[in-house]
Amino acid sequence: MIKGSCHCGAIKYTLDDSPTQAIRCNCTICRRKACILAFSSPDRLALDADASVIAEYTFGEENIRHQFCAKCGCSPLGRGIGPDGNEMVGINLNCTEGFDLSTVSIEDFDGASL
């Protein structure tokens, strides 16, 4: 299980998973946000945030809803449709509390080519 939040703490989450794999995407938004993303199913995510503080941004095919805090601008997570057609959540491991990034295999993903 891992916990994370935005910078100001208005968005907090607990993920009932211990990721072993993640991606570093080079698409135009992920590169700018410096995200390292681990994916899971929405039923494994417990979100603690007022809906009014969660802002969303989509672009391109709008398959991914990039979510960020309307107060501090931090991007702790996103939601979307995975390659298998199922709902998924992407957790920015750089927004976790005490998670050791050296415990995950980080694969570079060429999102810029999509």
Automatic annotation (TrEMBL):
The record's GO molecular-function terms, alphabetically, read:
carbon-sulfur lyase activity; metal ion binding
Name all CENP-V/GFA domain ranges.
Answer: 2-110
**Top-level lineage group:** Bacteria
Keywords associated with the record: Metal-binding, Zinc
The record ties this protein, via InterPro entries, to: CENP-V-like, CENP-V/GFA, Mss4-like_sf
Among Pfam families, the record links this protein to: GFA
Keyword Zinc belongs to the record = yes
Keyword Metal-binding attributed: yes
Write out the similarity annotation.
Belongs to the Gfa family.
What's the protein here called? GFA family protein
**What is the source species?**
Exilibacterium tricleocarpae
